[in-house]
Structure formats: C-alpha cells, structure tokens
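Protocol step 4 of 5: obtain the predicted structure for the target chain.
Materials: sequence only (see below). No template structures provided, no constraints applied. The aim of this step is simply to have a reference model before the mutagenesis design in step 5. Sequence pasted as it appears in the construct record:
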Amino acid sequence: MKNTPSDPIEILQDLIRCASVTPLDEGALGVMETLLTKSGFTCHRLVFKQEGTPDIDNLFARIGSTAPHLCFAGHTDVVPVGDANDWKQPPFAAEIRDGQIYGRGATDMKGSVAAFAAAAMDYVKEQGTDKGSISFLITGDEEGPAINGTVKVLEWMKKFGHLPDHCLVGEPSCVDQLGDTIKIGRRGSLSFTVTVEGKQGHVAYPNKTDNPVHKLARFVDRISSTKIDDGNAHFGPSTLGVTTFDVGNPATNVVPARATAKFNIRFSTEHTYASLREWVDRYIAYVKNEMGGNWITSSSEGAEAFITEPGAFVGLVQDAIEQETGILPKLSTTGGTSDARFIKDYCPVLEFGPTNATIHQVDERISVDELKATTRIYKRIIESYFNT
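Step 4 output (structure tokens):
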C-alpha cells in the first residue's frame, strides 16, 4: 500500500532522489512546495542573485496568520557524494536496506525536513491553525557560501511581516542516540592571515638578510600556546588552530622574502570579532617590538557566537523530546556553524534533529525508526507550542 502524503519515509525518499548538490535544486524544493500547498500552506519560491555567486532557489511557506508563529528552518542542498562507487547503495536512489534509508542528505538534513513536514501537515489536518502559524524556511544554500539563502529569505520575511516568534532548525544535533542533544547556541568563528615581510638573501650571510620565518614562528608559538579564556556556563574554552604556515621556498640556502600563517579562532560569547582582533594585534605588537619586521594582518568573519538562554521555549522542546524518548537532552553549543547564526538576529532559535554519525560521509543514512521517532518529537513540539 502506498504511504500517505504525510509519511516521512516517502517524503524523504522523494527529496533524496533530487540530486540537489549546492547550488543545484533539481526539484527538491518542488517536492516540498507541492506537499505543503496541498496541506493549505501558502508557498513563495524566492530566487536570490548576487554577482559572482550562484543563483539560489529558496522556499518560504506559511499557514495561519496570527501569533504565535513557529518556524522550521532547514535546507535541501547537500554536499557532493565523493566517489559514487564507494557507496554501498546509490547516493540518490533512497533505497531502504536493513531498516536504513540510504542517500546523500538522509540526515543532513533532508530527514529533518521530511519529518517536520509530516508532523506539521498532520497537526494542521487534526487541529487546524486557529491557535497560530507554522512556517517553513527552506534554503538551497546552507552547504555553500550562504549568501543568497537564509540571510536574504529572512530579510524578505521581515519586509513582508512573516518574522516568527521562535524558530527550530533541523540540523542533526544528536550524538549517540536520538534525543541526547539540543543546540542552544554556537561558537563564533574568526580566521586570520598574518604575513611577515623580510629581505631575501643567502642563508650564509645573515647580516645581509632579514628572515621573516623566525619572527612569524615566534608569534605562532606564543599565540597558539596561550589560553584565550576559560569558557563560561554554556561554552567550553575558546580555541585557536593554526591551519597553515607557508614560505613558498624550495631552497635550503635562501632566506625567503616573506612568510605567511593562517589560523582560526572558535570563540564563546566572552568575545566579539573586535575583541579578538585586538587580542591578536597585541601579540603581534609584542613580537614586533622584540624582533621587528613588516607585519600585514587580515581577518575573515565566519560567525559571531550566540546563545539562546534556557527558558520556556528551551524547556518545551526538552520536555517533548523526553516524553518521546525518555532522554533529557543535553544543552550544547558545540560544533561548527549553521544557519541559526543568521536567525538568532530575528528570534530565539534552537537546533534539534537526528543523530549526526554519518553526515557528509559515504553511505549517509538514517534508520526508518529514527525518522519516525523524529517526526513524533516534532509533532509533540508543535502541539505543545500551540497548546501551552
């Protein structure tokens, strides 16, 4: 017998079969638009463009017109599959083997999109929309540069009066078992490039050269061995990772003209971009005062740290998860970045989704049981949100 339209298994299989590797859509948003339109949602396809970046197709769908307004945010774009021959099952066939649904995006994050769609459609069918509004913000640019996706959809939502009161992002947040983790924030990310210029020359005549490698090595050693902070109640200590140290010198008897290092800082709410730039500048000044040199520094902002403080919304989601799984989820801020970093500027935001053991890997998959359980959790969240 054919599954009902609100069955998350069928929805997920339809989504996986769309080879929507960023920035391609390949029909994935159409799957969602068709489903949600049939359930009474008003859908808007939003294509955003910017010179030098790929055009991105996005979807905003809403049912109801009053508060409270709960938004589910997710993405249907996926990372490349790598060598398809390494997969046990074809990456875009959505085959089920031994209770597992295989395919790129099964957990990151077409599984969450399918589960929340099924939960929302069932809720609307059973209880209507008299108590508020449900919406979907689905982008095709989360795994890419994130320029023409969630950022611009949020601007559009603000312009046309669609900003939600709360948002749930379906990123796969759980570590060992479904329900063990909710993300209530994320660390910030700031990258630096530091170059020291010197004077090239023969290594045997150091008085005729100015070696930039020694200066940069001193700086890298000092800054990488210094504790940035001790963290706080919601974040572990900030970390600094040196990712490259380049001289571009194939010779052993030549002092190079310049040396460059790159590093990234993952930081807590104890810091901002500005405070960390000042911190790095101080260490450059220390070494420059000791050893001299011409120093050139640049930085690239990834994301500011943020936190959604525990409260009614966090508690509601925790309760729904515990009622379904028997597990009280840990509140976490670990991991990289997500589109929640943009949403937090508009409303409180949490991240909850399935386990993340196979994301971005060969043979990415989600179990049928976990997909169904995720759907039940989302249904409880929706019911609690509009009935509490």
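Step 4 remarks: The longest helix spans residues 368-387. Residues 222 and 255 are 22 Å apart (CA to CA).
Proceed to step 5.
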